[in-house]
Each structure stands twice: as C-alpha cells, then as structure tokens.
Design a protein that fits this description.
By secondary structure, the protein is an alpha/beta fold. It has one domain: Dihydrofolate Reductase, subunit A. The strands form two sheets. Strands 1, 3, 4, 5, 6, 7, 9, 10 and 11 form a nine-stranded mixed sheet that branches.
C-alpha cells in the first residue's frame, strides 16, 4: 500500500464544495474523472480505497453506496454508526490507514467533506491533490480549506465545458515532496 493518501475534490472559485450536503453543480464528466482516478489500481488484484466523512457518505445516493470497485471507509466519531457489510467505519485517518494496510490496497484517496479535508491537509501522509476547478461561484455552505500555500501545480487540463459550466482538472503536489 502507498504510504501516502491523495485528495480528490471539485470546488468553485470560492473553494465551495457543497450546499446542504449536495454538489451545487451537475458535471457528469467530473464524476467520470473522479471514478477513473479513484478506481484505477496499478496492479491486478489490488483495489484503491476512498476515505470520507459520514456526511459525505450520506450524500452519495443510496443506489451508488458503497462506491463500487473501491474499499469504502467512513470516518465518524460515533462508534455505533452502522455501515453496510464490506464498508469500514473508522474514527480517524490514522485508524483508517491501520485498517487498510491489512488488505490488498493500492492507493488511498480522501474524498471529503470539509472537516476531513481539513484534517488531511495537516497530515504528514498527504500526497497529490486532484482538484477540479469549477470556474464559477456557487452558493455553498461547505468549503475546501485554503491549500495554495501547501502545494505546487503539476498539471492542468484545457478548459472543459459541460452543462454550461467551465472547469479544469488540476493536479498539485505538496511543497514538501520533490
């Protein structure tokens, strides 16, 4: 298993990531990108893992939970929170790593929400940041933390268009990694 975890997020120009526990935009191309990034393992027989907070877990439509082809880890402080069989419930990012190291895991991704991203940005295991930059400002009540001082841009796609929305796929690496 990789020693680091990567972050995957889509945010608007104000770093908004959601409103009322839902995405404020509809960009199927971004959802396909998210699935490709978080599902593709480097070796046959290995699977990737997605770590998310309880609210993010609950925001995924029931017919898409758990996210297929990946280990799903739900972070919650509630030890009685019930998750389906095959889904892991952990109390912290570190506990999630301890759990995942036991399985055939390739890459680990943090996929939200705001509180979990906050914890992840302060963690020593932080790796790449896959950021879909939505070139618009939405009315949001959840935000991705300030990140630009922690990372340097590695790559950026051309501006994409879907459903009247412009966006770019960007990849950042932490300043501490060479």
């Amino acid at each position: 298993m990789n020693e680091r975890f990567d972050l995957v997020v889509a945010c608007d120009l104000n770093r908004g990531i959601g409103k009322n526990n839902q995405l404020p935009w509809k960009i199927p191309q971004d959802l396909k990108y998210f699935k490709r990034i978080t599902t593709a393992a480097n070796e046959e027989g290995l699977f990737n893992a997605v770590i998310m907070g309880r609210k993010t877990w609950e925001s995924i439509p029931a017919n898409h939970r758990p996210l297929a082809g990946r280990y799903n880890v739900v972070l919650t402080r509630n030890p009685d929170y019930v998750v389906p069989e095959g889904v892991f419930r952990c109390g912290s990012i570190d506990e999630a790593f301890e759990t995942l190291v036991q399985g055939p895991v390739d890459k680990v991704f943090i996929i939200g929400g705001a509180e979990i991203y906050n914890q992840a940005l302060q963690h020593e295991r932080i790796g790449l940041l896959y950021l879909t930059e939505i070139r618009h400002r939405y009315d949001c009540d959840a935000f991705f933390p300030e990140y630009k001082q922690l990372f340097q841009l590695v790559s950026s796609s051309e501006i994409e268009h879907e459903n009247g929305v412009e966006f770019t796929f960007k990849v950042y690496k932490p300043n501490l990694l060479d």
